[in-house]
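Listing S7. Sequence submitted for prediction.
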Amino acid sequence: MPHIKTRGLVLREVNYKDSDKILTVLTQDYGKLTVKARQCRRRGSRIAASAQLLVYSDMTLFEYKDYYTLNEAESVEQFWGIKADVEKLALCSYFAEVAERVAKNGESENALLSLVLNTIYALATLDKPPALVKAAFELKCACLAGYEPFLSGCARCGKVDPDGALLDLSAGHLLCATCREAGLGIALPLSQNALAAMRYVAYGDPRRLFSFALDRNGLQQMSDACEAFLITQLERGFHTLDFYKSLMALNLPSS
């Protein structure tokens, strides 16, 4: 009946019984784990802070037959700047739901954990548009999940069109305007600037993931393409994304 020590980020929390929670935790050493946090909802609980969504903690887990209980925990980062902003919290909840979907149980997911943590940190502290942070996360997450798109040139003729290209969402590759044929699935346009940004995210240094800028049109194209590509490849939607979009719609300026 061993105890294991690791660091982990809570991706989901569900109340259980009168005072417990069931947590989905993305850990540094063991990938995605389901963890019971006993009596964490009681006043004075020593693990209460670490048993909350989007809290990153040092954890001691009790393991018994692939079942884990949170014995001790000390929070490392609670991301208060995110939790004080409802739109940022909604967006980070989407990041957490995506990470839960793609993470594997029992396998090291250091790259994915670093991506989620860096993305939350960027949204909390960097002066970057949320749309840019969201698009970069979606594309890089798709790459880590095994769906890296082919962005070097047209998949058919190899041409690099100076006017941009189209991203085939299902096939995960580029098509130039000449090779694009009707009936081959949904393809979204990308300007050269949007395409360059996507190449930077997919192939560049993950430590500098958000160190790029785009004009408004380029960012809109990249945002549309990265979201649609991730959802197409994972073959599902996300209720947290729907909620985030509903919040953004409330804040749109009236015409």
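Caption to Listing S7: primary sequence and predicted structure tokens for the chain studied. The chain has a mean pLDDT of 92. The first strand starts at residue 3 and ends at 16.
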